[in-house]
Design goal:
The structure is a single chain. With about 375 residues, the protein is of the alpha/beta class. The protein is built from 14 helices and 9 strands. It has an 8-stranded parallel β-barrel, surrounded by 8 helices. The model has no long low-confidence stretch (mean pLDDT about 90).
Amino acid sequence: MSRRHPTVAEDEIRGTAQGTAPVPLSVLDLVTVGAGRTATDALRTSVAIAALAEARGFHRYWVAEHHSMPGVASSSPAVILAHLAARTTRIRLGSGGVMLPNHAPLVIAEQFGTLEAMAPGRIDLGLGRAPGTDGATAAALRRSDHLREGADDFPEQLMELTRFLDDDFPDGHPYRRIHAVPGPIQSTSPGGVQSPHRPPIWLLGSSGFSARLAGSLGLPFAFAHHFSAQNTIPALDLYRESFRPSAVLDEPYALIGVSVLATDEEKEARRQVRAAALSMIRLRTGRPGLVPTPEEAEAHEFSPMEEEFANSWNANVIHGTADEVRSGLDDLHKRTGADELMLTGNAHSGDVRLRSYELVADTYGLPTAPAALTAS
């Protein structure tokens, strides 16, 4: 019996710039939880931001996988994406990303096949090879202490996942009779009708490994500029140099994640990002917690080492008034040549994050939003 292979259209990857933005703008959501707030509050903020992003012409909305971090409630991207799919109608939704070594490829194929069935033609599958957490948590997720082995096996895991999504294991393969459902096998069953499309696969990275792999496979690439800025241009250069045309893309397509926080007053932006930097200091020193309030950060006595870290961290956060943020984003685009900018805002308050995306949309003249949305 012949199989009907699903396809990925290039226009499911490439976006269109809106307003005066130099490239398409998108959103990366960590579902951050501030002190005094709950995960429910954070998820309500995600719904509000996704609705705003859709109304204002942002291209896609991704959720990142993290674990064992009290201030980050995005441990289950597929569950959150299903929630967002039910509350949006047009914007692309995806993972930024799923950490593939933490999961069986068949499970991810089933989850994202289900999401594709919920929101046809709107789902992206972004994949990373890092654990998205500390080593002990990664071992608990993977039921193994051999974490390096999981990362080294990433290309093989990627190939297995792709074959499950396409339902095209060759004859004689032990998985030939195993099918990811929902998926292409349904179109070959008597009376079966199945969408010919499947979620586009993106490779995510913060160094050169995934850049080279994405290029060699002709896949779109997303780079984590927001926490690996020094590697951005080398990784993008490597991706473009390694790129080989594929059935998915004729030319390279790379987006970069960017930390952004726009506020009505410059001073307030500085207060907010300093609190976010304190949260990152605690995470990096083994004391993860909820995102502190700006008042808590103001009362905190930063040690010289903490002060140095905060200043270095915030040097890569584009923050300030809307005009200042626009200038920073325009400059970053010119320096990197990125095809898309994916903005992530880390702040204690959901309303501050929501207002930041609204200000960015306004400064670039993106489509007008409907009635005001609120977040917790």
